[in-house]
Amino acid sequence: MANAISPSVAPVAWVAVEKITQQVLWLVLFLILAPKLGPAPYGLLSLTMVIVGFCELVLTESAGEALLTVKTATRGHVGTANICSLAAGVGAAALICILAKPFALMFHAPELFLMFLALAPLPVLSALISSPVAMLKREARFRPLAVRSALGLSLGGVCGIAAALAGAGVWALVIQVVVQRAAELLILWAAVRELPAFTWSTQCFRDLKDCAGNVFFARSMSWCAGQAPRLVLGWFLGPAGLGLFTLAQRLTDVLLQILLVPATTVARLEMRHYHASHLGLNAAFKTLLLDVGSIAFPACVGLAAITPALLHAGLGQRWLGAAVPTQLTILTVAPWTYFYCATAVTMGVNLSRLEAQIQAMLGVTALLVVLVCSQWGLATVCASLLVRLTLLAVALLFVLKRYAKVDPLELLIAPLGPAVGACIMGAAVTFAGPFLAPVAGRYLLLPGLVVVGASVYAVSLCVFAPKELRRLATLLVQRGAPT
Question: FRET label pair with 49: which of 134, 253, 457, 466, CA 20 to 30 Å apart?
Answer without folding.
Answer: 134
